[in-house]
Specification:
Length: 225
C-alpha cells in the first residue's frame, strides 16, 4: 500500500474577514487521496481520509464508491455485537450491515475488504477526503478490535503514535498473499517481540488488549507539517 499524491492540492485555504473581530480568520483543511491496491480475497483496510474534519461521518458508499466488482464485501467489527457485512450488489448499491460497517470506517478503526473473483483480479480503492488533524481519542476495549493509525502514515504505533501498550497486548497484521504475519507482543520489559508494528498507509490491524491492562483511550496526535 502506498500514498499517491498525498495532500494533492495543498488543501482548501479559506479566509474570511470578520468586522466584529477586525481581523482575518483562516480555516485550513488539507485534502488528498490514497490509492490502496486490492486483489481477489481478503485484505485489512483503514479509512485514513475523511469526509469532514470530525473523522466520523463516513459511509461505506462514500469511502469505497461503487467502482468495485459486484459482490465486493466490507466487514465491520463491533466489540459488542461482532461482525456485520455490507455487500455491493448488481445495481451499484451497498446493502446490509451498514451501521456497524460505517462506524468501522471512522478515524482509528478499520474493516475487512473482500474482493470476489479469480486469481489476478485487482485494482485500486481510491479514498478521497480530509487529513484528520489534532488529537483523536480512539477507544480501546479489552479483547479484540480492528484499529488503525488515524493519519495516512506508515510509522510505529507506540513510538511515533502513542499507543498505550501494556504487557501482553498483541497486534495481528494480515497479508492478502501470505495470511497473518508473526504476532507482535508487548513485553514486560517495554519492548515489542519480535518488532514494533509499523502498518502501511491504508492498512488496519487487530489489537488484542490484555484484560489485566483494562480499557483505555489511544490518543493519536497529528498535524500536517
Amino acid at each position: 500500500m502506498r500514498t499517491k499524491a498525498l495532500l494533492c492540492a495543498a488543501g482548501m485555504l479559506a479566509a474570511a474577514a470578520t468586522s466584529m473581530a477586525q481581523s482575518n480568520v483562516y480555516s485550513l483543511n488539507v485534502v488528498g487521496y490514497i490509492n490502496i491496491p486490492y486483489t481477489n480475497g481478503f485484505q485489512m483496510v483503514a479509512n485514513q481520509l475523511h469526509s469532514d474534519s470530525t473523522g466520523t461521518n463516513n459511509t461505506v458508499g462514500g469511502v469505497f464508491g461503487t467502482n468495485l466488482p459486484t459482490g465486493t464485501q466490507v466487514y465491520g467489527f463491533s466489540t459488542t455485537s461482532g461482525y456485520a457485512t455490507a455487500t455491493l450488489i448488481a445495481n451499484g448499491t451497498w446493502t446490509g450491515g451498514q451501521p456497524v460497517v460505517n462506524e468501522s470506517l471512522s478515524a482509528g478503526r478499520g474493516v475487512w475488504l473482500r474482493i470476489p473473483g479469480a486469481s489476478g483480479t485487482g485494482g485500486n480503492v481510491t479514498i478521497v477526503g480530509e487529513v484528520k488533524q489534532g488529537t483523536t481519542g480512539v477507544p480501546i476495549a479489552t479483547g479484540f478490535q480492528i484499529s488503525s493509525l488515524v493519519p495516512p502514515l506508515s510509522t510505529t504505533i507506540k513510538t511515533a503514535m502513542g499507543y498505550p501498550a501494556g504487557t501482553g497486548d498483541r497486534v495481528f497484521q494480515f497479508s492478502n498473499a501470505t495470511g497473518y504475519l508473526p504476532t507482535r507482543t508487548y513485553l514486560a520489559n517495554a519492548t515489542w517481540s519480535p518488532t514494533e508494528p509499523t502498518p502501511a498507509v491504508g492498512e488496519s490491524f487487530w489489537i488484542s488488549r490484555a484484560a489485566a491492562n483494562g480499557a483505555t483511550t489511544w490518543n493519536q496526535t497529528y498535524n500536517v507539517p
